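FAQ: What does a multi-protein file look like?

Like this. Sequence, then tokens, then the next protein.
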Amino acid sequence: MMLRLLGSSLRYRTGNSLGRCVASVPQARSKSTLADIEASKVQLDLISNRKPRPDPATLSFGKVFTDHMLVIPWKASTGWGTPKIEPYGSFPIEPSASVFHYAACLFEGLKAYRHDNGQISLFRPDMNMKRMNISAQRVALPTFNGDELLELIKQLVRLDKDWIPNRPGYSLYIRPTLIASQPAIGIAPASEALMFVICSPAGPYYPDGFKPVALYGTTEYTRAAPGGIGSFKVGANYAPALVAQKEAAKHGYVQNLWLHGPEHYVTEVGTMNAFAVFRRPKGDIELATPALDGIILPGITRDSVLGIARDHVSGKAKLAGLPDDLVVSERPITMLEVKEAAKAGNLLEFFGTGTAAVISPVDKIGYLGDDIAIPTGPDGMGPISRPIWQQLTGIHNGAIPHPWSVIISE
């Protein structure tokens, strides 16, 4: 890790892709006498009366859950216990559990997609397993064999695959979660933990076409700091963000744009990674996103956007609609640069990326009392994000064969 001074803000430089960030972190725990997760030991307790499937047109994200869930206990003295797939429902946990008092928890988010031929796939689930282990290490929760957990997730999806609506743009959102469950008040590494995975059918993020969002540049709150937890998917990152989102809404904006330091570096768009597209002085086009510097979450969609763009630039996989002279950068971006580029007509687009929306275009940023207008196309998207979004969604739904699409066999 290298410290770098950017203006007067001290920021951490830890690498510039999720792949590089996790390369040195194994999915499985180091050799130990403690038991690790073993998918072959799963016990099934299947529901006898399946719940009615909701009308896809009425789906609201994260409000309806499938018939089953996966639960795996852990103890410091013995390691991981027997995995169980059982009916979705509440489970007993004591009021003194550490998760309630010290936010000792983390989670992931990924999706299962139904292809036209009926096959079900996951998108780059190995990246979620790696990132989950990294988050667990950061908050002193147990790590695990990611391949084994992934096998259990596949089995859960197989059981509840009929919850994936057979309509374009629909999917099954999968939420693996790990919490400290020991019944004791006192700040200490977890002695007991609980892994669980729940699933929820999800509709398209933009059911009526893309609607660019207006952002409020947040300068009065800070999402993360160097050496903190901003680059980890832990629960403590999210509740403090709600007040900033409410502030943005109060000013008439849809979401907030997190800025960092006196230079107002662009970091994240709400809970998404941020991208900007600039026309450079020589006329070529730059797709830029903040580098993974220790305060930014290494998003899997972020990494995928960069990978698709770089494959195009290198000639490995040319993408129709992207310019041949595209430049892909991971670097600091200040709001001053964004504002001046917009004023000069050189800011071509701005968008966020994440699992839920994939790509979310932005048409306005409120910053220090002024609105920065950002161009969008007639469909709401920009010239660079549009072909990348088409490529990503094509991989999701199976129209474009790709190694990132992991088929769940019957």
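And here is the next protein:
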Amino acid sequence: MSNREQAKKGIMICGHGSRDKDAEREFGLVAKGLKERFPDLPVEYGFLEFSAPNIHMGLNSLVNQGVEEIYAVPGMLFAATHAKNDIPSVLTTYEEKHPGLHITYGRELGLQDDMIDAFQARIYESLGLDPENPPENLYDTMLVVVGRGTSDTSANAEAAKLTRIVNENMGFGWADTVYSGVTYPSVGVGLEKLMKLGFKRIVVAPYFLFTGRLIKRIQGYVDKVAQENPAIEFIQTPYLNDHPRVIDAFQNRVEEIMQGELQTGEETLMNSFKRRLAAGEVDVHHHHAEFVDPQDDTQGLSASDVKHFTNVVLSEGHGHSSVLNPNGHSHSHGHDHSHDHGHSHGHSHAHSHSHDHSHGHSHGVYKHIGHPMGPRTMIGEGICCCFMSQFTDEILEEEKSKIDGDCTKTAFAHQ
């Protein structure tokens, strides 16, 4: 028997993290459910940012329990920046610092049948229907799936693919996808456009694992639109949470690692990360590995969000101070590096700055940041400052009427 086969095994679930304490607790429920599936193995979890335990803490706990081989799975629905870059970076760095430890990184949850079944079950439940005995169709109802929204095109496409699959499975009269994040169409504008189709019953189903700022923002948008359109029945589907089929999906990803299925077929997330890192294609923000306690449960922006945005405005010379509140600080982070934000709207900002591992949030640059149905529709409603920093002067000038001088204020959805 090889040393690897004799090594004590453990499971690590790697999440994003949230300023919402309820989201932390819900993530813990998934870990608890997975522990019930693997009673003989230690199961720990940790977050990239905002929350405790962070990923290092979870890994430390496994090592302290004598674990020498870790099966790590991303607690992510789709493979965007966090699953592709940030988590592999944390795991690789940790493994390098612990000789004798072996970490295998699995796949994102993706569009497994279990995930689709869980999502459909939540939708049926919100309609007061039995998922085990569904109607033949729901032709009188429109489905609006809310995806996370990211700068990663493939992740956005997966949300749209999910919508089509669920629509055909359940037989809605129409279905479409809106997004709560950096892409388009945004939730509010998307709903306004879709209401023109004339459906009197609209199901809004967020494809999210847990609660958090975005879920509450989505609920706020839907409530606002529903109040303005009393003739339409809006039904809000609960997020996935620890539905048994979600636990099944996590179990599947762990068993893929155990059975060696990641070594065949397409490139794994970890292999992709290492290849791109070696080629200089990955700009890793190591602050994701560090835990910063926000000290509060408010749904507004964290101090690190404010710090990051104000500095971007001032140090990159965007000239936004005429329309945004200049709080003024230096972008000093502890280790110098340069990177080009590569804005596709006609100018780029090659700059050098340093990062203090207390920075709490980052997003990839999105080339359609100025889309008329995208994040600009959320300016003035508490949109993340990391998005705000990507807007050109021209966009901010056009949207100036929405900006009262402070992008850090809480969105109406959270008031």
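Q: Is there any per-entry metadata?
A: Some entries carry free-text notes. For the entry above: The radius of gyration is 22 Å.
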